[in-house]
Structure formats: structure tokens, C-alpha cells
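A reminder from the course coordinator: this example appears on the midterm review sheet, so study it carefully.

Given structure:
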């Protein structure tokens, strides 16, 4: 049975508020997508918070003693993100070694979870790919190459190749496509890495739409990034504070408008981007104005908002991780990426959930905001199962 929800938008509130009726009948319970058939009423607030994390972890195999299994079993972890290499210590391989190994890893992760996991990866093509040809995975073109050729059939072929690979490995969420406009081709993190389809919003929107349709046809979700637009930045948000106030153009919103209107936005990732005219206080990931007002209200997006990795220097250079997590949730982020790779802490989710609880007790967050985010994440998981 489809649940009717009442949306009450307060233009002065930092996020939209959803109110849900009480369900007297079990078949009207809110969807949790659990193999144990848990209802929303049976869940405590800690379990809902656990679903709001997309967490990285170390290693190419797991067993019952692995820290991520504790997060899955005891903290109701919502999903994981896979990396091909370790970014700390001596480096080396991380979660991705070969096709057979990744397939076994994702199967193990799902087996340990009572609630189906989102399993995510950054597989854009070109230079940004975790599944590399040298490990036996198919090579695919960069967005820049595809945009320059302007052959939609070719874009679809490369997207299908990517999506087929992900599906065969048990990966259900690709943190792509990039829909940033290539308005500054020397951009160190977008244009300089050939991650943008074009400087034209129409070309970007068209190619991204084909990419998403191809992924959905192969039962894989996509994520648009990096809102409100990283293509004009002069610096890399992985490395530090990134101010786009003087370089950003309103045209950078056009691909979002197009893809939201066409129903092709499975999820949208915020960039850690500061724009003083959009919000004089916070970068996009922590901004109720940019998420709640611009993205939700003005652009009409009601799907899952995913943060970029909250351990990136654009955030950690100015905020503590616990503080950033709470600010992001209050601003309207629904799914928090903690890569756990730039910095490694096997107990990181156990540390962050109490911080969120404390923010609720202090009045900095509400249980309604947590429930709203949890509901969106469950609907995204429902879409995975619908595609499947």
C-alpha cells in the first residue's frame, strides 16, 4: 500500500518537514526493506541514524570480526563505499583487487546485513575509476571524451558497459555522473581531469540523462554531482576550503533542473563549495539555504541528498567531523559519506551516532529530520529493489 505523506514547507526552516500519520494496521507500516520485516515503529532512533551513513572500510575480505560487520550488525549501517587503494599508511590495495574478489566481498556484506545495503563506488570512466583496467575491468571513456564526440549511442554503450560491470559485482550505486560544467578547463579536480561532458549545460544534461537511463536499465542507481556546481572552482575541495563566490554561474544549475524535471535524479551529491551569495556562513554540504531552499524548494528535488566525503579537507580544515555530520543532517543531507580512507578509524560510526543523538538532545537536530532522511534512504533502497 502506498503511504500518503503530507509535505509542509516552511520557507524559514532549514529543511522541509514531513509529517506521517500513525498506522494502525501492519500492512500500512512504513517501508524498511528488511529481511526481518521490521516496521518503522520497531526502530529506535539509533537504528535510523545508522541507515544514514555510507561508510568506507579497510580490506578486500571481511568476516564476522571485521569492524564494518559490527557497524552492519549492531549499528544498522545503511551502506558502504568501495575504494581501490588505501590513502593512508603505505598505500596499497584496499577493497578492490579483482572481479571475483569484489563479487565475493559484496555478497558477504549483504549476507551480514538484515537490511539491504547500498554498495557504492566512484566509477565515472577515464581517470576517475576505482575498477581499473589493470585489474581486469573494462576501460571506459571519460566524460570529456564522450561529450566531445557528441555521439549519444557511444555514451550509452560506455554507460552500459560500466553499469553491467557494477551489477555483475553486486554494486548498486554509482556515484556518477558528474554534471559540473567545464567552465574552467584548468580546474584541478573537474576540467583538468576530463570529468565534465562539456561547458554547455544542454550537452551535459543530455549525456548525463543517457548515462542514468543506461544504469537504471541495468539495475544500478546513479548520483548527480557536485551541487551546486564544481566546474568553475579554482581549487580542489579534497585539499582545502573551496570558494566559488566569484567564479560560479547560475547556468551551472541547468543540468540539475533538466534531470530533476525528467525524473532522472536518483540522488544528488553536494560539493563542499562555499558561495557567499548563496550562503554567507556555510559550504553547500552544511547549508540549509543551498540544500533546503535552492535544491529542495526552488529546484523541487525531494530525493536523497548525499554528502561528498566529509573527511575531505574542505570540511575538516574548519569543522570537527562530529560537528560536520550534525550540521550536514540539519542542513538537509540524507546520506553521509565517511570514506574512512583519508583518515582511518575502525570505530568511526560508533563515535558519530552518539554525536547525532547529543545534537538531538541539545535541540540542534530533530527526530523529525532524522526520520525524513531515513525515509528518503529507504525509498532509494526501494528503487534498487524495483529496478531489480
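Designed residues:
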Amino acid at each position: 500500500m502506498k503511504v500518503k505523506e503530507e509535505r509542509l514547507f516552511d520557507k524559514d526552516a532549514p529543511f522541509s518537514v514531513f509529517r506521517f500519520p500513525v498506522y494502525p494496521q501492519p500492512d500500512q507500516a512504513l517501508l524498511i526493506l528488511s529481511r526481518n520485516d521490521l516496521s518503522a515503529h520497531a526502530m529506535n532512533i539509533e537504528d535510523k541514524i545508522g541507515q544514514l551513513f555510507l561508510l568506507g572500510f579497510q580490506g578486500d575480505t571481511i568476516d564476522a570480526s571485521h569492524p564494518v560487520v559490527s557497524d552492519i550488525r549492531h549499528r544498522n549501517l545503511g551502506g558502504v563505499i568501495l575504494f581501490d587503494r588505501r590513502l593512508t599508511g603505505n598505500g596499497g590495495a584496499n577493497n578492490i583487487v579483482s572481479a571475483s574478489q569484489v563479487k565475493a566481498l559484496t555478497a558477504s556484506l549483504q549476507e551480514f546485513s538484515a537490511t539491504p545495503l547500498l554498495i557504492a563506488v566512484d566509477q565515472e570512466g577515464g581517470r576517475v575509476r576505482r575498477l581499473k583496467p589493470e585489474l581486469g575491468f573494462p576501460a571506459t571513456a571519460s566524460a570529456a571524451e564522450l561529450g566531445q564526440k557528441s555521439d549519444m549511442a557511444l555514451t550509452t554503450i560506455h554507460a552500459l558497459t560500466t553499469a553491467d560491470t557494477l551489477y555483475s559485482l553486486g554494486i548498486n550505486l554509482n556515484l556518477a555522473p558528474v554534471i559540473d560544467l567545464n567552465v574552467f578547463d584548468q580546474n584541478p579536480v573537474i576540467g583538468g581531469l576530463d570529468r565534465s561532458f562539456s561547458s554547455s549545460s544542454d550537452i551535459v544534461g543530455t549525456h548525463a540523462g543517457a548515462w542514468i537511463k543506461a544504469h537504471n536499465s541495468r539495475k544500478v542507481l546513479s548520483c548527480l554531482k557536485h551541487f551546486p556546481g564544481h566546474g568553475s572552482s579554482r581549487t580542489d575541495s579534497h585539499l582545502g576550503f573551496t570558494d566559488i563566490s566569484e567564479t560560479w554561474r547560475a547556468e551551472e544549475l541547468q543540468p540539475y533542473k533538466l534531470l530533476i524535471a525528467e525524473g532522472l535524479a536518483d540522488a544528488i551529491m553536494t560539493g563542499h563549495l562555499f558561495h557567499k551569495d548563496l550562503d554567507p556562513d556555510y559550504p553547500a554540504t552544511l547549508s540549509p539555504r543551498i540544500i533546503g531552499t535552492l535544491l529542495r524548494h526552488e529546484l523541487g528535488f525531494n530525493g536523497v541528498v548525499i554528502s561528498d566525503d566529509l573527511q575531505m579537507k574542505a570540511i575538516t580544515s574548519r569543522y570537527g567531523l562530529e560537528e560536520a555530520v550534525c550540521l550536514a543532517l540539519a542542513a538537509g543531507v540524507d546520506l553521509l559519506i565517511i570514506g574512512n580512507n583519508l583518515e582511518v578509524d575502525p570505530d568511526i560510526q560508533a563515535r558519530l551516532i552518539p554525536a547525532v543523538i547529543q545534537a538531538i538532545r541539545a535541540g540542534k537536530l530533530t527526530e523529525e529530520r532524522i526520520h525524513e532522511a531515513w525515509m528518503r534512504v529507504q525509498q532509494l533502497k526501494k528503487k534498487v529493489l524495483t529496478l531489480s
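Residues 84-100+121-387 form a domain with the TIM Barrel fold (CATH 3.20.20.300). The chain has twelve helices and 15 strands.
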